[in-house]
Amino acid sequence: MESHLEWHSARALLEWQVELGVTEAISDMPVNRYAAAAEAVAAAASGAALPHPNVAEDPVDTARKAAGAAQDLPALRAALESYGLCDLQKGARNLVFADGNTPARVMLIGEAPGREEDLQGKPFVGKAGKLLDQMLSAIGLGRERGGDSAVYITNVVPWRPPQNRDPSPAEIAMMLPFLQRHVALVKPDLLILMGNVSCQACLGKRGITRLRGQWTQAFGLPALPMVHPAYLLRTPIAKRAAWADLLNLQAKLKA
Ligand code: URA
């Protein structure tokens, strides 16, 4: 616990220094870079082993094995906790695994946790999450509900990226086997892909304003891309399209 807190304090200090404009780390002791380079060249020429990064583990392959071995949702959660190859985990306070009841006909896949989600360990609990709950409730669905009204919610990545940046392609690639397994274990009837990162991960393409409202397939299931509620908070005019998409979802569930 203590080292976790120390890590966060050290990181906050570093971020503060970067904001002040610090671009280089300089120690009290002078370093002769010419001598260090000459030593490395001499070592290479003599065939001595140079330090090299550990390239033994392929993060995507490791993720595939770990996710594939999980036989239920608690095991999948545990596999993510002990995965250890995604740097986002080091900067996050909590794993944000999922929220909602199973079985659920609808599984919603968001992008990544933000500040509130990171603090509470639950997806979509900030302002965008409140709007999402209102949107779902308007068509009789919700994460607190059960039976045919249940919605199960998760994200493409389960740890908050620094400064809420988009997850990188490498981070998405290593989390994808876990997401795929997550969908297979929940066994929903259909998916909602919330925003661009979700479309990138599940469909291999971005461009949510073109993709939204058009049913497609992801992980072998019908999937509906929708604009992200965070976008709706910034762009209220887009709520009209979101409402049309919700009605479209409701009709599909009734069909
Ligand atoms: N945005 C997301 O995509 N997911 C969350 O959990 C919160 C905000």
Task: Describe the largest sheet.
Answer: 5 strands, mixed
Strand order of the biggest β-sheet: 2-1-3-5-4
Number of domains: 1
| Bound small molecules, deduplicated | uracil
Instruction: State the total count of DSSP E strands.
Output: 5
Question: Which helices and strands appear, and what pairs or packs with what?
Answer:
Layout: H1 2-19, H2 33-45, H3 59-69, H4 73-81, H5 88-91, E1 106-110, H6 115-120, H7 127-138, E2 151-155, H8 169-186, E3 190-194, H9 196-203, H10 208-211, E4 216-218, E5 221-226, H11 229-234, H12 239-254
Uracil is lined by residues 110-114, 117, 123-124, 128-129, 155, 194, 230.
Describe this structure in words.
The N and C termini lie far apart (51 Å). The chain is built from twelve helices and five strands. It has a five-stranded mixed β-sheet, sandwiched between helices. It has one domain (57-254): Uracil-DNA Glycosylase, subunit E (3-Layer(aba) Sandwich). By secondary structure, the chain is of the alpha/beta class. The protein is 49% helix and 9% strand. The model has no long low-confidence stretch (mean pLDDT 90). It has helices at residues 2-19, 33-45, 59-69, 73-81, 88-91, 115-120, 127-138, 169-186, 196-203, 208-211, 229-234, 239-254; strands at residues 106-110, 151-155, 190-194, 216-218, 221-226. It binds uracil. Uracil binds next to helix 7.
